[in-house]
Amino acid sequence: MTIQELIPLIEAVNKTPQADLGREVLCGYTCDLLSWVMGHGQEGMAWVTVQTHMNVIAVALLSDMACVIMPENIEMEQESLDKAQAEGMCVLMSPLSGYEICGRMHASGIPDKE
Amino acid sequence: MSQTLLHAEYPVEAEDYTCAGEASADIKRKLKQLGVSSNVLRRVAVASYEVELNLVIHSEGGALTLEVTPEQVTLISRDRGPGIPNLELAMREGWSTASETARSLGFGAGMGLPNMKRNADTFAIDSTVGEGTTIEMGFRLA
To answer: What gap in Å lies between CA A47 and CA A65, rounded to an integer?
Structure first.
């Protein structure tokens, strides 16, 4: 599933207009402890987190993730969005809870990380 | 001595959470330009980010050194203190002395050093309380 296809599935808004929405989402994950995500992040991951600071983008980029998803309409800091834009990372914002987002992704065939 | 393809130094300031990750991002970019495989690239990126964050969270400041030869990527972190009193505890997953600030940003899970060791092919740490800590990691290219 591409990011473009993921957006309606989780009722999301794309906060990074320059991102490549044709990118394939390979797996899903949710965690707010960045040190933990560093150890478990994977290429092509769609990562749900309530953290909004710049380090979120750094972690997503270093693991070569597909996108970061902010649940429950949490607004990411502008500074973080600017960094995401500049580096080509996609950030989505969804009104759904992290639980519901992951449930829908899983039911649609996006697997867990390896 | 093997031919050095790349040598770079990155100063890292203590408690500078805004710039944290910039050195690692540059290291990843440079290695990508050199054509380093995605598997090695990812492992170096994770380890360099962890070690960079450790400098920000725990040290009084320090620097990262990147060296690349045709055979290996070497990443060295040197700081100006305070040193680690108990290395065995520090290497244990889940054990952390991170500040409230670090924890509120989602760091301090006590995964840093074990994560570096897991991602690197060789890992060596040396620490003296009152002097500082040196970590050297190697990633084989050939």
So the answer is: 8
Contact A39 B46 (CB under 8 A): yes
Given a contact cutoff of 8 angstroms between Cβ atoms, the answer to whether B14 and B47 are in contact is: no
Question: Does residue A62 lie within any of the structural domains?
Answer: yes
Kindly state whether residue B48 falls inside one of the protein's structural domains: yes
Could you tell me how many CB contacts below 8 A there are between chain A and chain B? 71
Structure ipTM: 0.72
Chain segment B17-43, per-residue pLDDT in tens: 888 889 999 999 999 999 999 889 989
B115 contacts on A by Cβ (under 8 Å): 35, 38-39
Number of domains in chain B: 1
Q: Is residue A113 situated within a structural domain?
A: no
> What is chain A's alpha carbon radius of gyration, rounded to the nearest angstrom?
12
**Residue A82, domain member (yes or no):** yes
B18/A54 Cβ within 8 A: yes
